[in-house]
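Throughout our pipeline, every protein is held as a single compact record rather than as scattered files. The record that follows is passed on verbatim for readers who wish to inspect the format.
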Amino acid sequence: MTYTGHSRLADFVRGLGALAVFAFLLVGFPVAMYKMFGSPLPDKLPTWAEISTTLMRPDTDQTVFIATIRLIGWGAWCLFIVTVCAELVRYLRGRSKPAMLSSAWPMQKLIRDLVATATLTFSAAASLASSASAATHMHTATGVQAAADPAPSKQGHSTSGMSTPAPATGASEWTPLLADETPSEPEPDPHPWRTHIVKRGETLWDLARRTYGSGTLYPKIFKTSQDVHQPHGLPELTDPDLVRPGQRVLLPRPGTHEAPSSKTGTRSQHEAGHSSGARQPAPTGSPSSASKPPQVQAPVVAPPAERSGSVAPAAPHHHQDDHHSPLEISLPSGSRIGLGLAAVLSVAVAATRLHRRRRRPLILDPGSPPRPAEEPPIPAPVLKAHQAHLKTHADRGAPVPSDTDIAYKDMLAAHPDQIVLGTRDGNAIAVSFAGLNLGLSGDGGHAVARAITTELLAQARRYRAEVIIPRADAQTLFPGDDIIGLGTELEGLIVTPSLREATDRAEAEFFRRGRLILTSEVSDVPGFRAYDECEPLETILLVASAPPGSEVLSVIAALGRRYCIGVLVLGAWPSGTTVELAADATVTDADGPDAARFTGTRMFHLTADDATDLLRTLRTATGNEPDLPAPPASTDDAPEPEAQPVSAMVPPPRPSGEERCRPARLNVLGHVSLHTPDGPINTGLRQRARDLLAYLSLHPDGVTRDQAIADLWPDESPGGLVAQFNTAVNNARGVLRNATGLEEPKYILHSAGRYRIDSAVLDVDLWELMAALADAGPGTDDDARTEALFRVDDLYTGEFASGLDGIWAQNQREYLRRTIGEALANLARIIQEDDPERALAVLERAIEHDAFAEPLYRHIMRLQARLGRPDAIRRTYGLLEGRLFDIDAEAEEETSQLFHFLLRPSKRG
């Protein structure tokens, strides 16, 4: 029996077990209770005197105990019956939310799981019956065909007594997105979609990856399957992240990728235009594939993939302009990268910030102002890639994700299966990592190899990818000594002493993966990943120079696809496809099986300096960087912090009395918005005007137009930006004049070549906050500092300019977050002796603003220990662990040791 048969039989057995449990709870349990305790209805109601007497006397005969057990048993069964009825009503009404109170949700979830598992009995039985019928039909057809046309052997003799069936022409369950052969026109299928029953452990991402070759296309399956009628007892498909065993989804049949309309069942012409209808190859592990020479994975022009907010290597479609392809980013150094690499670099930036936030020490010196510890800045090329990725969300109208959202979505990412190498005529040229067999030569060969290697290393976290490279080749691609150190610190990078050790490591992986595949009855590594998700089987890329006459690399490239191992050769490669690259990474010549597909392609490439910056950021993304410097013991010898606009600015003085009320107010803490005394201004303000107002709030003394344009719109063509800037100023003025009814004020002043907000008519919440921070600075007594810090606690209502993705906004957001965290920690330090409860409340608000700052949690646990609250200490530590789990991190050893120390039983003399 095949693996699929074992799986269906297991589903059938689990379904029978769930059905038996459900039947026992529904019928068997009350029968057993009746046999043991009799009827639940009493003969007569007891009087209050009888109840009092029974409860006051010793329970020597266990009467009260048995009555209690009987009451609890019958009460639980009644709750079970009520919940079953509620679930039945919910199902008949088509509701997806719980129909009962939250206290009954555990019972309701148990019933849902039992019903869902019980349905496996019927679905698995039907699948087993259909499989048996199909196997009988195939055996009969194969026998007739073998008898009519016996296949000759290699010696020219016919085979007698046994026959080998030809492999099926349908798609493999793990079909790559890019086919080996030239796409052919498929025959029209009147029923292009088939119904698939979800098995335990399957996700829509897995199904999309099997069907389309890319998990990022799972929204197609979800959209098409929303109106599919589900079996009795199973909810409708309403959440793409939540599918249950036994639910039905629609998958395209082999050879078609078109989606019918969710309402009418007809094909969608838009989705049909995004599918190639390529003929799918036979499974690599099929009997016929062993006798054929392996073919190179052929790149094709890949259509833009549909996205649904997930972080994945496939790049979303952008509006094309006159200067670059919509799938690429040009860095200041001349490097060009794809949005796929930008997406994974965005994860590295988010993870780096979160790790630094949780490890940054607090400055609690009462004589020093709140200021951050010195940190190495994130390289400019990485920040630009991060900003380009965030811009893809804004372009399609999706909310800009926070660092926490980006890091959490990265936990759900699958193994990398393809890479976009470049563009041609505005389209992406993509190849599969599995079985990659490509040589890069010419002036731009090393730059392209750096881009490919860096993108795979950026996806290497959580055992998803691995790059094996000999030391000499590593130093060629990444000049300097950094690459050797990174080889021991960067996850997924294996630097071997020589090519021999690199090929030996690849060969060892072949043997290990071959044994795993053989014992699990699957055909390849992608199939084994679905079979056992806990076994680390990374996508491996061997990057090396091929010496003349090298046969080992040829064998690895020939066998690599089945085992998800690829070969990238630095130089000409007679055993595969070689592309000749000019200095700008344009393919000038190509030779090999796929030469025609690469001709004219402009490949992505990285300079050595940019690649090194990217690799260093990947290292800091794991939290693996030197410890941040400790806070200075005194302010006399402490170095000056790096200049920050928000810290260096001096907010305008606030008037008092009647002049204090200005006609309009700008809020930049949280969502950028304008307000008048009558309420918020909800219409008329354009996005560029909103960005400009937030930027000017950081510069009360004004800023030149050229500086504002360079910070606000660094990637846009300079030709029309002056007009855009003027339009933004006019828009802001016009909206404020219409809202306030005051025509005379300009609101944004222009004087001596500098633009600034008119503080006489426009109030800014950030200025109030910075004034309060200044009042809490050095030279202030504790009472005045306490009052100012309480104002800081009230005024900080949200992070700076949430939703803006500019680098300037991100930097100020991070700086202000840690500044407020230290300010609140100092406030708690000042008041904790006299009012520890209020100090705890202040620290709890601090971790709401900075949820990953471990020093704040340690401060809270120490204060809870002083108050004698061990349970509160456990809750605080559990809260920290839960938040760190969302970003795949663990508490530092210092925090863990403090937790166990505070809960250690005190020694009594």
User: Anything to note?
Assistant: The longest strand covers residues 418-424.
